[in-house]
Amino acid sequence: MIQSHDPRMNRLGLPDAPATAAAKGALDQFGTYEAFHQKKEGAPFVYVGPVHAPEADVAFLFAKEQYSRRFACTGLWVVPTAAITVTDYVGDQEWAYDSLPLLTNQQAAATAPPAGPRSGDDTAAEAAYAAGEEDYDIFHLKKRGKAHQHVGKVRASSPAQALQVAKAVFSDQRPVVNVWAARSADFLRSDDGDRDIWTTTPEKKYRDAISYKVQDRIERFKAETGTSQAD
Amino acid sequence: MNPTLDLLYRLADDQLILGHRNSEWNGLGPILEEDIAFSSMAQDKLGHSLQLYSLLHALGEAEPDTVAFTRNAPQFHCCQLVELPIGEYDFSLTRHFLFDHAELLRFEALATSSYEPLAQVARKLRGELKYHALHANTWMKRLGTATDEAIERMQRSLDFTLPYALGIFEKTDAEAEIISSGLFVGEDELRGRWLESISKVLAQTALEVPDVLALTPVLGGRHGQHTEHLQPLLDEMAEVFRLDPTADW
Amino acid sequence: MYGSASTHDLPTTALTGLENEDPILLAEFEARINRGEKIEPGDWMPALYRKQLTRMIEQHAHSEIIGSLPEGTWITRAPGFRRKMAQMAKVQDEVGHAQLLYSAAETLGKTREEMLTDLINGKSKYSNVFNYPTPTWADSNVISWLIDAGAIVNQLANAKGSYGPYCRALDRICAEEAFHLKYGHDAVVHMATGTPIQRKMMQEALNRWWPAIMTFFGPSDKMSVHTEILMRWKVKMASNDECRNQFLDMYVPKILEIGLTLPDANLRKNEETGQWEFTEPDWEDFKRVINGDGPCNAERIAVRRAAEENGAWVRRALLTPKAQYVRPLA
């Protein structure tokens, strides 16, 4: 057995020369979900990164601690990576919607705004939903190296159409380097009642750099030992 | 012991010892993301114990560090459930599930405690404990309905752990006064709520739940009688602290 | 916590594979980097860029997860609430950093499973310093402060690199490292200015760790064709010597001001050149350790392997038949 300085390892009883480990299966750590957080009420949801998880509920548990354990957070969404449709990436000064296939005039008319998300007693919208249209969440990347940000929802009958609708709805937003679209139904979202799971986050000062103030101690030490003169 | 102190010591010692135990998983968890989540909850438990020891300090007891790092096993009031070694992940998850349900309900009840400083702490921790219970329930439901291997493991862990979990509700001599003074609803009441709460979740799994109240509880912890695991845990935890008791670390 | 993308183990041949790349795409790729734009996962990229970045981010990820172990050694023994909770949070962060970095590497096409398999079979490298033990609490503090400080020098440089997902991960990591650095400094200062027992313990730990710290950024870079290309592509952002020199500039005074000494009689700053002079680290020993023969290599790998094996049933249980692997998006 390997003797460790770590008592936990000695309790594990690690074998001395383990045999070669078998390769991990392709899904040994599951598929991936993408997570988005909201820093404060009213702020847009912003992409924070992926988690590996078997199901959305587990993905939510994981994303909550991996991406929102430190800083203020008021909401969290997770969605399967596979559920997101991605446009081409374009240059920092360009508009990613320009890379979409061009529509015929007829198609363009069919996707013209207003085609926002479900609201109140909109009978046209109800008819559209009944005909199979759904809400999609749209995310923009404004600059390469930054994070995708939620810009709103559109109604469409396919991801490709959702991007076309978004092109019309968000035509005033530029530049856009990349667009993500995902069916709203595919997200697992925290609701307002869950917000208290982040209540104590700002109080966990032991993991904040600012709670470690040691300059006074250093000055006192220097004064006592006279090293300040030696500097 | 004064009923407030009696109650606070039990709560604080449970949180400290289980937080310590669960921290042993950090870096060794079954999935990276789970490793992170489990560590957060262990930190939370340490944080709870610190807040509770601080209430004790305000009532004239020693500093939290002194109380946590210098007592020996017979002076601890934790239930034996929390001191058991981490074992395999099925046991640690089952303990987390059984303990955290009791913890959530206990703090819910304490939110209206007649001892206002404690009630304040309890109210503040509500959301944090909600996440802990959500985590525990999700795992219990997932593993309790998964492969035969997982169900068998979880069943074995549940059967082993339940008698220890009943030890959470062991009463002390102060119980009558704790209830009559409005400090807390009492252990019997809590146990009833807990049983209802865990049963709801377990009913959604393939696990068989025995007649819990017919089991023989593992008692003694609240009276300073502990398993052989607690003293070595304390010695390990205080190894550095005791190197130089005069030091500021 | 990662020191350097050590280029010393790059092929010394002048062949880079660039001859086989489409010259127009290559020109567009380089023009984008020259404009200061980041490369994102959907972009065309040369095979060498993908390969070198994958290797570097993967090594960085391994360094985080293995790097959690020397400090994890003291997680159950940290003295007092303040240290105990912070030590837990720090070890947790290292695991979190590994998760972020594996995710960034996955966007380049290598799965987390492949990376972890390579790690537990000893096929991958990680920062060599983590093959040394932490026999006392003070050793853990030295890592928390000085290894993290070194890592920050390197990571701040890399955060200005060209690959978007790596930059995003590093931004987050650097924000968290700010806590590590302050926490580590705080712990070292308390020891170094504390009781005689504490001071002795800290000085001994520093003496043990200093040679390893001096190797943290890797040997001087040999300027090869590869190195030049990787710097042009903003994969490698600063030379190993530059990082080491910057680290010494920032931290030697902070070490000395709290009464600690450094176990290298030749260590001094040449005020004319602005460069630090020091006893050349034993690079032969470094090579021996990085190739598997260090005091803790076997343990580090065995621990990771035990974690994987002990958790296998959990992962088997949760895997649903409909699960499909998709590369993370960004």
From TrEMBL, chain A:
Native species: Hymenobacter glacialis
Protein's recorded name: Phenylacetic acid degradation b
A Pfam family of this chain: PaaB
InterPro entries from the UniProt entry: PaaB, PaaB_sf
Top-level taxonomic group: Bacteria
Automatic annotation (TrEMBL), chain B:
Biological process terms in GO annotation: phenylacetate catabolic process
GO cellular component entries: cytosol
Transmembrane segments: none
Pfam family membership, one: PaaA_PaaC
SUPFAM superfamilies per UniProt: Ferritin-like (SSF47240)
Name by which UniProt lists this protein: Phenylacetate-CoA oxygenase subunit PaaI
Species this protein is from: Hymenobacter glacialis
Automatic annotation (TrEMBL), chain C:
InterPro entries the record matches: Aromatic_CoA_ox/epox (IPR052703), Ferritin-like (IPR012347), Ferritin-like_SF (IPR009078), PaaA (IPR011881), PaaA_PaaC (IPR007814)
Annotated GO MF terms: phenylacetyl-CoA 1,2-epoxidase activity
Residues forming coiled coils: none
Name this protein carries in UniProt: 1,2-phenylacetyl-CoA epoxidase subunit A
Domain of life: Bacteria
NCBIfam families named among the record's database cross-references: PA_CoA_Oxy1
Organism, scientific name: Hymenobacter glacialis
Transmembrane segments: none
UniProt record, GO biological process: phenylacetate catabolic process
GO cellular component: cytosol
